[in-house]
Amino acid sequence: MVLTIVVGYSVGAGKIKAAKQYGRLGVWGGIDFLGSGVIFILFP
Q: Membrane-spanning regions, if any (predicted)?
């Protein structure tokens, strides 16, 4: 949730490049979280 605030502040400040980087960080963090959850479910 904090990442959405940081991206919003970056866009508001006109720092589009930083906002894209934060967005990618959030997407990859979500993928990592999902992947680790799947591993824990498959290999208890």
A: 25-43
